[in-house]
Amino acid sequence: MDFFIVTPSFNQCNFLKQTIDSVLSQKVKGKIIYWLFDGGSTDGSKELLQQYDNKIFWISKKDKGQTDAINKGIKQLTLWLKKNNKDPEQVIFAYLNSDDYYLPKAFSLVERFFNRSPHRWLVGDCQIVNKQGNEIHKPIRFYKQFWRFWLSKGLLAVLNPIPQPGVFIRASEILKIGFFDERLHYVMDYDYWFRLFENSGLPIRLSSPLAAFRIHQSSKGSSQFKKQFAEQYKVAKRYTKNQAILILHWFHSLLIIISYQIWKKS
């Protein structure tokens, strides 16, 4: 089984080496194809990427942002599948942001479960870490673990318990569902989970952590969480007209915003 990984990046040089190495250090039976799309960083990222010239594919030039970079990766996936005559059922797609990283043996675990199951996508657990890589916010992690056990499209309309770095999708599903919505700047993944539910059903759910999601001062989840939740509410309205569910979604988001504000002050 092959893995096709995409990383969107912009001015994340401090974390970029760990991100790249966490992909390249994985062991799988097939190949790991790794594309990194840098949006024209000015912080030394390009110089770092030159050290990986023979190990990864990368481009550094101005783009339209994170979602645009992910979609460029999907275009490359499509070209690679055709060029190499690959069975998309046997190729796993994922994207990893440039401040996050995979944990050791994550891919081998993902590969094992996909080989056993006809499921179209997989969701694993994620650690939440700070700038230094120390685990934080464990109650949030356990809270999301609990709700993933009850995961459904209706639940997803209330809250999002799916940690993006822990998601792996068969390439065949990517070809069916298509690109991420470039009108979305914060929750393009949340919208994609709904589309996966509609087209592919429930994912494999693993309690094992596959990746680390980093929260730091300049990350979107830390500095722009109000805009993130506002956009998330708009996405939820795309997929449900149930006013009770939308009220629950709004109330849940409000509680999280209040919690974030308390944590930032403490």
Determine the strand fraction and express it as a percent band: 15-25%
Treating each run of at least 4 consecutive H or I residues as one helix, how many helices?
11
Summarize the helix and strand pattern as letters: EHEHEHEEHEHHEHHEHHH
Q: Helix content range of the residues, please? A: 40-55%
CATH class: Alpha Beta
| Assembly status | single chain
Low confidence ranges = none
CATH architecture: Alpha-Beta Complex
Can you tell me the CATH topology? Spore Coat Polysaccharide Biosynthesis Protein SpsA, Chain A
Total number of β-strand segments?
8
Average pLDDT, all residues:
94
Strand order of the largest sheet: 3-2-1-4-7-6-8-5
Would you write up a description of this structure?
This protein is 48% helix and 19% strand. The protein is an alpha/beta fold and 266 residues long. The chain has a single domain (2-265), classed as Spore Coat Polysaccharide Biosynthesis Protein SpsA, Chain A, CATH 3.90.550. The longest helix is centred in the last third of the chain and has 23 residues, at 243-265. The chain is globular. The model has no long low-confidence stretch (mean pLDDT 94).
Write the layout of secondary structure elements.
Layout: E1 2-9, H1 13-24, E2 32-38, H2 45-50, E3 57-60, H3 66-83, E4 91-95, E5 101-102, H4 106-116, E6 121-129, H5 138-149, H6 153-158, E7 167-170, H7 171-177, H8 188-200, E8 204-214, H9 220-223, H10 225-239, H11 243-265
Parallel strand pairs: 1-2, 1-4, 2-3, 6-8
Antiparallel strand pairs: 4-7, 5-8, 6-7
